[in-house]
Amino acid sequence: KRFTLYPGLPVSVPRSKKYTRRPVTRGLDSARISKSPNGHCGRYPLEFLLFLYPRSSFDPLASEIKSLDNGDSPSSIVCMLKFDEVLNLFQSLTVWSNGTERAPHKPLLALWAIGRCLEGRDRLASYETIAPKLKTLLRDFGPHRKVYHPEDPFWRLQKDHVWEIDRPNLVSLTDSGGAHTSSLKRHNIRGGFTEPVFDALRRNQALAHTIAQMLLQSHFPTTLHDEIMRATGIAAFALDSEPHGVEEIELEYVSSRRLKRNDGFRSSVLEAYENQCAVCEFAVRLDKNPIAIEAAHIQWHRAAGPAKTINGLSLCALHHKLFDKGVFTLLPSELKVIVSEEASGHGFEESLGQYHEKKLAVVPDDYDQRPAWQYIKWHVEQVFKSPEQIFPS
User: What distance in Å separates the CA atoms of residue 302 and residue 321, rounded to the nearest whole number?
Assistant: First the structure.
């Protein structure tokens, strides 16, 4: 068969039951390109090639792709992945959404895999290796759940053209198209970045860090970035300096993909709370300027939380970090501090425990500027580590 990826760029795929049984995706056969005298020389889905290269970049790549029809190794395509092309793949990750409910499963899996790549580990890892590590990340940085499902991102990330599963035909599926955990374990199924993506990240550490920052900016508040970088192993491979070109790409991403921040949010929140921490009344100043006092979003900016005073709290740097981590929240009806039952440790009582079930120490005089119920409810359900303390059902 011959398939045309773009006009004037045909690619031949051998006729074989092995290749023609697979379902058609996006108008193209999902066959794996394989051309060598004695069998397999590489696995590259046609839809991946279609998705990977923009029209403007096909002309110089045409000879490389056509070379596959002559039995050449596909490694030449792997080597030609460009910085922005790989970045675009990760920008286009599809994340499950239901209103403002958080679903950081795919981003956390991708971040963990980036850390593994930087460590020099193998491209593919078994589900049984990945599952406990991803569960820990979901428990620490995702919404509180009674049960976590690492099998979902492990299986579904394939659709985003950055991840692949070995022997997917052995995996039994649920009615919703997910993978059965028992099947993944029984067959020791492995998953990891596709070869082109993995090789690009391995060769270019700056690319790996740029993608990591992009994922963090898209799905988590800045107070958690460093901790997630450490938890995924990426922080151990920090760059000595910002490489040429990275800043421009990040700026383009910020302007085109991120929600714009309201520059007046911080000043309006701090003014409403008189430059004090709402929890502990911390109000240290240096030359009349407040130090370590921050405007925290109750419903995260990344989760479409508005830049309004009723969605803000003035918090010291410590309580801002604890609030974004879900260590404490507010009781919507009374604006009381509710501390998670899971919190403990040295210094806990002095820094946070003593405020449990006490009303905020500082609130705006104007009732119209006080935290709104709907944003607190979001924080309880999507961030707080013990939501059953407030909503027992």
Answer: 16
Asked whether the beta carbons of 259 and 304 are under 8 A apart, the reply is yes
Question: How far apart, in whole angstroms, are the C-alpha atoms of residue 359 and residue 63?
Answer: 69
The token pair that represents 70 in the structure block:
């002559």
Which tokens in the block code for residue 206?
Answer: 């700056």
Return the closest-CA partner of residue 148 out of 109, 113, 196.
109
Q: Are strands 289-290 and 285-286 parallel, antiparallel or unpaired?
A: antiparallel
CA distance 76 to 93: 25
Distances (CA, A) of 329 to 177, 268, 320, 374: 36, 21, 11, 13
Task: Encode 9-23: b = buried (16+ Cβ within 10 Å), e = exposed.
Answer: bebebeeeeebeeee
Quote the crossing angle between the two packed helices 205-219 and 246-257, to the nearest 10°: 20
> What is the average pLDDT score of the chain?
80
Q: How far is CA 367 from CA 198, 272, 282, 295, 363, in A?
A: 53, 10, 22, 18, 9
Task: Name which of 150, 157, 155, 153 is nearest 89 in CA terms.
Answer: 157
Whole-prediction pTM: 0.75
| CA 123 – CA 391 distance, rounded (Å) | 42
| Residue closest to 326 by CA, chosen among 2, 102, 20, 87 | 102
Going 19 to 23 to 24 to 26, the CA torsion angle's sign is negative
pLDDT at 37: 33
Q: Residue 10 pLDDT more than 50?
A: no
CB 36 within 8 A of CB 75: no
